[in-house]
Amino acid sequence: MHADDFDLEEDLEYGSADGVNSFRNNRMLIFNAKSMGLLRQQLIDTLGVEEARKTLFRSGYQSGYADYLSIEKNYDFESPEELLKAGPRIHTDKGIVGVETDEIEYDRENGEFYFSGTWHNSFEAQQHIIHNGEANDPVCWNLIGYASSWCSGFAQTPVLAMEHQCAGMGADVCKWEVKPIDEWDEKAEPYIRAIMDFFKGEKLMEYYSYIEEQEGLEGKIQLAKETNLPETKASTAVDSKENIKMFRQAIEDILGERPPKL
Ligand SMILES: [Zn+2]
User: How far is the CA of 172 from the centre of ligand 1 (A)?
Assistant: First the structure.
């Protein structure tokens, strides 16, 4: 299939359980953009810009990575490029931002990656302006988190999305680029630190994906209870031998059999 054939509306299951909408095993929620804007502002006001930016970036990162794993596994695209372009498509379908893609160049074996494009109607830029007025720097932190992790999943190496123009600064549209983390200058450092942190718990996250494939959401909840490392904590925990052993044991307890080595 082509990226344009992907249709979230078609595959989104309303009422998969009482009060539950789901998309391929992921529970999906519909929020009013104003409430997300207020939550975002509360983070800025209570944590300060730096920590709020990191938190929102990481939250977007989690969302993009979960979407990538789910779509890569469940759909058969005509070419890798169509899979890559499905990320912008789902971001658009979710009503978060309208994505127009521009240049795509990659060589996954050699760790080369470049992707650029335009964002229209970023909800995050709109909400930032409502609460703060125009900013001096780009503000679509949640959106660049999403784009960074979607592309990192695809590129199989950490890449980072950054905006060089943002509607939150008064521009008509946002303009973004995604490149390997070592190709960015010092402005990217806070985001790179946030990403490296994420990759710490990569193995643990793979075990979360495994239990989700086997047992769905229930399995993830059980794994969180047994390890006391819910997904968000696991993503920043260290992939130590002890942690991996604990996860494997917990999965064995849940499934009644040893999980494969991931
Ligand atoms: Zn922006």
Answer: 10
Q: Which residues pair with 116 in a beta bridge?
A: 177
Instruction: Please name the residue that has the structure tokens 């939250």.
Output: 59
State the Cα–Cα distance between residues 83 and 68, nearest whole angstrom.
9
**Angstrom distances, CA of residue 187 to CA of 120, 137, 149, 231:** 23, 10, 18, 28
Q: What is the pTM of this model?
A: 0.77
pLDDT tens for the chain, 262 residues long, are 999 888 888 889 999 999 999 988 788 898 899 999 999 999 999 999 999 999 999 999 989 998 998 899 899 999 999 999 999 999 999 999 999 999 999 998 888 999 999 999 999 999 999 999 999 999 999 999 999 999 999 998 889 999 999 999 999 999 999 998 889 988 888 888 777 666 667 788 899 999 999 999 999 999 999 999 998 788 777 777 778 899 999 999 999 999 998 8
Rounded to the nearest angstrom, the distance between the alpha carbon of 221 and the centre of ligand 1 is 34
Neighbours of ion ligand 1 (CB under 5 A): 122, 125, 140, 163, 166, 174
Q: How far is the CA of 45 from the centre of ligand 1 (A)?
A: 20
